[in-house]
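Let's practice the habit of predicting before peeking. Look at the sequence and jot down your guess about where helices and strands might fall. Then scroll down.
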Amino acid sequence: MRDQKASLLAYEGVNNNENPEDALELFKISVYVALDDNLEDFFVPGETSDNLSAISSFIWRVPLVHQYATKSLAKTYHQLPLEARYAHLDWSQVDPQILLNDIQNVKGLQPADFCAILDSSWETSLENFAKRYSYVSSTRLDVSEQFPWRKLARWILRGVSLERLSMKTFENWEGNHLTALFSALFLIKRSPRMCERDTSEFLSMWLEDVQSSGKDLAKYGSQEKEIFMGDKLLQDRRLDVLFDYSFPKISWTGMRLVSFTYGPQPEDWKLVWGLEAEEYAGDFWYLVENPPLRIPGGWVEDD
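Done guessing? Here is the structure:
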């Protein structure tokens, strides 16, 4: 059984949408191995394991698997309380359209009701949602693929209070606490060629979504700025960038958020990124100790 469970975990990262029939068979094996073929045991809040996360990745990423799971439980599934229904939701393993369809089938479900699950774990948290949303934005998906994420984001944000939006609720996988906005900016790897553009484009999209939920962007900015100014670790933090030989300085050190402006409209917000002066210190002292050779007969400036 141990060998079976080890193989089960290996399927968690597979792009299951490429072969939905194969994914369904793997899902059935997963349920048999991890839950002794009792799918109802999956929908138990508070239980956590790598195997449950693997099963969740099938249910919320593959339409055929989600359809099979809900039909297998028949009426039981639709009677589950929200904290059980979405017990093992992980934003890194979600097809937003599957979740949107599922939400629409819950009679009378309001964004505020759904948002109660955002405080159950890091995987289901608003911070992890923002991180995933930022990643999707940076992958340059076409409009049809981005639309479900944006629709889901706007629906969720309608149920999130302005105060909750700037809370550092969960310790992330790094052991740090960041707000949703700073999680989105700092917790994904970016191309050094595109990092400033990616962060700027995501910020605009995020702010438009927040504004569409009726929130005051000036107040939101004030909250985030206060957090930023009071957090030395955040001020010293760098963007996590992929290595690119064409951009060695950014690749080695990342870019630091020096400051940002904000206001009542998305276009009032600007991120100010910078490389530290000490990163160029080696070049400076090299030039001091090894001045350029003077050309014989060249003009010499008076000191």
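How did you do? The chain has 17 helices and two strands.
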